[in-house]
Backbone:
């Protein structure tokens, strides 16, 4: 089953051409907790960085999960909180070639609630900068949380299908 190109979804009964190999979220969890009216005055957000109340700082990155028999990983596109000094360092080097050499891995709290797992908010992470144009790599603290275990040990295409079907059944993205 390593080369699954399509599948019949057990949720909707439809044939899908291929399994999604990544899912993402447009903002950190905390941003969604703020009313639309307040977002204009309290939040700054772009595709990579979010600032709330000039005191809560978030960066977007990728939790990569190895997939058995595949070269490319399954990816959760997530947000992680950083402290003020680390977000300042990140912004300073954001567009500089070789930034991955200039910024050491930074501690952060996972700020995305990922379906398909027990609560993922506030899992401990390390944010690893990568070259310009590539989102940071998010390394989870090695714990027994299922997401952390999957990042270390990998998943199968069957697990990816299970995730796709859960998203279908809940009719939502995260």
Residues:
């Amino acid at each position: 089953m390593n080369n699954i190109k399509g599948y019949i979804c057990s949720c909707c009964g439809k044939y899908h051409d291929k399994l999604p190999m990544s899912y993402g979220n447009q903002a950190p969890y905390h941003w969604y907790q703020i009313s639309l009216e307040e977002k204009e005055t309290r939040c700054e957000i772009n595709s990579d960085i979010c600032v709330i109340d000039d005191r809560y700082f978030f960066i977007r990155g990728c939790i990569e999960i190895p997939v058995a028999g595949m070269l490319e990983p399954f990816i959760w596109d997530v947000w992680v909180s950083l402290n003020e000094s680390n977000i300042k360092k990140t912004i300073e080097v954001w567009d500089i070639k070789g930034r991955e050499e200039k910024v050491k891995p930074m501690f952060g709290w996972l700020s995305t609630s990922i379906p398909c797992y027990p609560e993922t908010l506030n899992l401990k992470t390390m944010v690893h900068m990568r070259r310009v144009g590539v989102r940071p790599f998010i390394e989870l603290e090695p714990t027994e949380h299922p997401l952390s275990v999957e990042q270390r040990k990998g998943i199968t295409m069957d697990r990816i299908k299970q995730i796709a079907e859960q998203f279908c059944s809940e009719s939502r993205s995260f």
Remarks:
- The mean pLDDT is 91.
- The beta strands are 7-8, 15-16, 22-24, 43-45, 49-52, 56-65, 74-82, 106-110, 124-128, 137-140.
- The chain has one domain: 21-154.
- Helices lie at 29-32, 36-42, 84-93, 99-102, 146-153, 157-170.
